[in-house]
Amino acid sequence: MQFIISRLEKHQKLFEKISRNIYLMAIKDGFIAAMPIILFSSVFILLSNVPPLIGITIPTDLNAWFNKIYNYTMGFVGFYVAGTTAKALTGSINQRMKGGRFINNTSTMMAAMVGFMLLAIGTTKAGNYQAGFFGTDGILSAFVAAFVTVWVYQFCVSRDLTIKLPKEVPGAISQTFRDIIPFGMATLIFSLIDVAARAWLSVPFAQVIQTVLAPIFKGADTYPGIMFVEFLIPLFWFMGIHGPSVVKPAIESALFGNTTANLALFKAGHFPIHALSENFLNFVGELGGTGATFVVPILFLLFARSKQLKAIGTASVVPVMFAVNEPLLFGAPIVLNPYFLVPFVIAPMVNVAIGKLFIDLHLMRGFMYVLSWALPGPIGAFLDTNFQWSSLVLMAILLILDALIYLPFIKAYDATLILQEQGQGAVAVAGATDGPAVAEATTATEATATTTADTVDKADEQPLKKLDQQLKVLVLCAGGGTSEQLANALVEGAKATGEPIVATAGAYGSHHDILPNYDLVVLAPQVRTYYSDLKADTDKLGIKLVATKGQQYIALTHDPANAVKFVLDAVNDTEDDKG
Known about the structure:
There is one protein chain. Helix 18 (341-360) runs antiparallel to helix 20. Mean pLDDT is 81; it is low at 424-461 and 574-579. The chain has a four-stranded parallel sheet, with helices on both faces. The protein contains 27 helices and four strands. The longest helix has 33 residues, at 389-421. Helix 25 (531-541) links the parallel strand 3 and strand 4 (544-547). By secondary structure, the protein is mainly alpha-helical.
């Protein structure tokens, strides 16, 4: 096992490079920006479909109103994502532009939407738009439209291929004219692609892509394919890299497309047969968060005897139920801890295999709605299968199997911690590996006492300079869940100490527009690999940036006073501390 750990650590930089790929990041950020649309629309599809199941007849006009809201939100998500993905990619490209040039992200957003229409949307003989690819079926066209648009703009702007007006002309008007050439070039390119696709196969470009990539998507919805997806996601997380950000963008079209297909099958009176979907991975493969950790805090509380695992179980049991498992991943720790590698990657693979078997045997419907990933897995599965009781049977089976998979490894790790806590010493887990997260695993009490390392020590040694004006702090994590915990701790600590600190939580990738509104940015452990990218932006804006480590971050979320000290130290420090 130690050999496997050393091999993984050897390639950690490669994994980090993959997770920081600007195109994968743009896809992820584009979907995050569109997520309010997706989640809001799911409410209305539930209102339309659930009441009839319990004998309630919805008035025809009211049901039509529910469906209209859904069709104009989720039904156009491909169109929306073309724009949000282009905007996110533009932000990354602007960081790399030289000579003071920049690309107008509003213009690329609009151009990508135009490109999407040309690539994906056909018309009837009467001139009406055909709606088939406006939604999730058009996602691939959305990505192509976004990427090509930004490439064209980058080519034109970097070579100054723009219409220049006299300096006396107001900036807003000048910018409009500067965007005409790249906008026109992108639009013409998409028009030519559309003509070529229709001349070749007599179908929109969106359908060409689906035809070419159909074998890939079909393979992902097989047992080996879906198990491989749920092998890679926890494997990346084990290295401290946010696994879903690396893996899911490559199959995003299949995840949401299968969800839509399942709903269409159900409404047509057929059985929803597709297993691979966004919420199937969330509620089944990632039951309780990446690694299928729903039962782990409960096992800590029931079977662990070490103070550390008892404390981590108490602190993480509620967050993990809502799929916020970073307190567990960095607190136990699970990340880079050789004791947990096997169950962390095996449990999700077992879960999706059994879940797919339930669907293939028609014991449970495929998931047909896009619900919030933060719903507790059993509740989410029950809702997403349209209130099918067999989904709860599946959840019970998975929780039992996950417990059996994790328990031997928990007991083995717990035994080493007991020896440490009893001072019988030489079997310390930190001595077994050089992994930074494992080396931090002392005891819960020691972790809390020493968690903020030099930061808190310096704060205790000498009084920190008090703030004389409001400090706006932005805490960033991968999805906004963990960052909310630290932001809340800072707000609570600010009230107790009287410091004028305002803290807000956010997701990395959705921060570009709001970044100028803050004075300090704190990066959670799972996104600290983006430190150098973000620092380029914060330096331009004169904003301080600090990144945190696993145990340090988790302890700060539970200690408002030290969270405030951490922020004050970062503000008073002359140089930004990377962690």
